[in-house]
Amino acid sequence: MSAGLKPVKIAYFQISGSVGGTQELVAVDVNHDGKLDLVGANLYYPLQDSAIPVFTLLNNGSGGFTLGAQSLITGGVPATVHPREMVTGDFNGDGITDIFIADHGYDASPFPGHTNVLMLGKATGGFVDASSTLPTIPDFSHSADAADIDGDGDLDLYVGNINGGGSGPYFLINDGTAHFTVSSAGLPSDIVNRQGVYTTSLFIDVDGDGDKDLYLGSDTTNDRLLINNGAGQFIDASSSMPSGLFGPADSIRLDAKAFDFNRDGKADILSVQTNNNPFYQGAKLQVLISDGHGGFSDQSALYLDSQPTLSGWIKYVSFADINKDGSLDMIGESGDGVVAYINDGSNHFYQLAPDALFSSGGTIEVMDVNGDGVPEIVQVGNYDGKYQVTVASMQISAGNVTGTASADTIFGGSKAQTLSGKGGNDVLVGGGGNDILVGGAGADKLLGGTGSDTASYADATKAISASLANSAKNTGDAKGDVYASIENLAGSKYSDVLTGDAAGNTLSGGDGNDKLYGGAGNDKLYGGLGKDVLVGGLGKDTFVFDTKLGATNVDNIADFVVKDDTIWLDDDIFTKVGKTGHLAKDAFWIGTKAHDATDRIIYDDKSGKLWYDADGNGKEAAVLFATIDKHLKMTFADFDIIA
């Protein structure tokens, strides 16, 4: 368990009145006061074939909650035996949020099922129990979702019944007033007859025709993708879905969310899975990328840096911007803890440590409790007749932050900062601004965010090798480090090897005899002190000389290209070279030494040596500062003077 810094502030509340254990939560404004409240459904554990009334927790406006009165729900308070999913939507067209609860009932033989729940929001606040308008079927509903499947402008429901209960899956067709008719006519007969088990469901437009199709995540069989004809008739897609990540015979899908991972305007699918053997042990997330025509490919390894590390299973995943950088992150609910992935800004996700946000598992909802625009994670547990409510508020750090010897998770703010992890396997998230991220020892995740961000190894105790192009080759303190939205590298006082990627990078060697490789892109290479080797690679590269000159500080530019590359000279070092800007024409000379008093930069094209001559007349000895290839067609235009 990590004792390092965490990006959360935890508040605990105990609220009397709990019965059983909380299984489902959803955030809605119950009393119409402009603040998000919670509606929850419980079950008994150990399991019982007995129902528990639905409850509400009202936001008190001070970061906490109070138990809502049962009178907030009129017509009798509905009760659940084993709630499995809560679906929100405006089912009767009055502009107020309603709630459907899928309840599969007692989860043991003979699996009798239980009736589902419908609560309609009232204009005066609270709900009316409208469950009596639903079919009186003992459903074993493992999932549900809502969409307008028949194009008539109101929300219909898919009820995902599995084995047990009194019925297979079906649609609830809405008449626009939240009165529903059971229909299985639009579903393939093998699904209705439960010849396969489908444990999660998602309405999603996979073919871009404007109506909602239906993804059914399977239990140890193949997923199904059903194409809607626009009138509520569903047929199998022509393309088969990829196998699950535990294998085709052992993958159980527990949740599915639509998310456009590759930003092509087509909705992709995140499939949440667990293992059948051993049963419900382990969790994996599968990223299914849509081709826009009903076909999907598994690209999980491209968009997720790793699979969840917990031993248990994940029930749900939510998308929310928890570090206030404008990109949606992923938060998963598990009995073993909260699983969180940070979005690097390009929809590639990086997993936080299992205890980075919470050290315990339970039922959660991601919601903005205090109205500041940053979502909190609210966990509701139950003990000794009380709701145990934990509110985790994300902490966005301002200014420079130094971590501990343990694994730290630090979220930076919108301005330039230096975040230092020290020891441990840290996660440093820069946020906005041009940040410097110092992971230190350990296998660190360095996520720059927006701006031009630097992974720095200035504190390393020995030489490192760091590559933005292939971090698997890193050594020293950089070994195990992962980069996202990192544009620049800074080395140590030892002899380092720094390698850029295909973008424009800034590589700073620091002290030591370093080797810098820019790669593709328009790079800037700062050798620093020592005898460095500078390789710009492809692109229009800049080689910067801004440290004290001397015999021990002569760099080799291994691939200077006259038509593309430039050498920058700092006027604090080259004090007599001239004014900032382009080098004067008469300040450059090709030869073995200066030929008049105006010469400052001399290129010996026979040896490849570059000299700085402060006076051009021999009174002050010329100083060698770099070597390049011989016989280049160098001119004054290859040099700029910087402040």
How does this structure look, described?
One of its GO terms (molecular function) is calcium ion binding. Keywords: Signal. The structure is a single chain. The protein has 643 residues and is mainly β. The chain has a domain at 413-642. Helix content is 1%, strand content 40%. The protein has 2 helices and 55 strands. The strands form 11 sheets. An 11-stranded mixed sheet has the order 32-34-36-38-41-43-45-47-49-55-50, with no helix packed on it. Strands 39-42-44-46-48-54-53-52-51 form a 9-stranded mixed sheet, with no helix packed on it. A 5-stranded mixed sheet has the order 7-12-11-10-9, with no helix packed on it. The longest helix is centred in the N-terminal third of the chain and has 4 residues, at 189-192. It is elongated. The two termini are 49 Å apart. The model has no long low-confidence stretch (mean pLDDT 96).
Fold topology:
Blueprint: E1 8-16, E2 21-28, E3 37-43, E4 52-53, E5 55-59, E6 65-67, E7 73-74, E8 79-80, E9 83-89, E10 98-103, E11 117-121, E12 127-129, E13 141-147, E14 156-161, E15 170-174, E16 180-183, H1 189-192, E17 198-204, E18 213-218, E19 224-228, E20 234-236, E21 251-259, E22 268-276, E23 279-290, E24 296-298, H2 300-303, E25 314-320, E26 329-334, E27 339-343, E28 349-351, E29 363-367, E30 376-383, E31 386-394, E32 401-402, E33 409-411, E34 418-420, E35 427-429, E36 436-438, E37 445-447, E38 454-456, E39 465-467, E40 482-484, E41 488-490, E42 497-499, E43 506-508, E44 515-517, E45 524-526, E46 533-535, E47 542-545, E48 555-557, E49 566-570, E50 581-582, E51 588-590, E52 601-604, E53 609-612, E54 623-627, E55 639-642
Parallel strand pairs: 7-12, 32-34, 33-35, 34-36, 35-37, 36-38, 37-40, 38-41, 39-42, 41-43, 42-44, 43-45, 44-46, 45-47, 46-48, 47-49, 48-54, 49-55, 51-52
Antiparallel strand pairs: 1-31, 2-3, 3-5, 4-8, 5-6, 9-10, 10-11, 11-12, 13-14, 14-15, 15-16, 17-18, 18-19, 19-20, 21-22, 22-23, 23-24, 25-26, 26-27, 27-28, 29-30, 30-31, 50-55, 52-53, 53-54
